[in-house]
Amino acid sequence: MTKTLVAGALALSTALLPGCFGDDPAQMLETAKFEELQRNEAHARELYERIVRDHPDSAAATEARARLADLGAGD
Predict the structure, then answer these.
(1) Which phi and psi (to 5°) does residue 22 adopt?
(2) What is the Cα–Cα distance from 67 to 29, expressed in whole angstroms?
(3) Which residue of 36, 49, 65, 74 is most buried, as measured by CB atoms within 10 A?
(4) Where are the domains of the chain?
């Protein structure tokens, strides 16, 4: 049973890694929003900043800038 749980956890973490560390701005945006929901504001900010820095002309960057402004208002 333990081997099955470990294998399942490994498969799940491998499947989730591209969403967290990929270079797709839309995927990073979704991950950042999820981080906000989980109250992990620091990681959300990092992702929003990365989107703006690496994909400044994308639709995701427009939304990331807005989210960063909202998060900044909460300081």
Answers:
(1) -70, 180
(2) 10
(3) 36
(4) 19-73
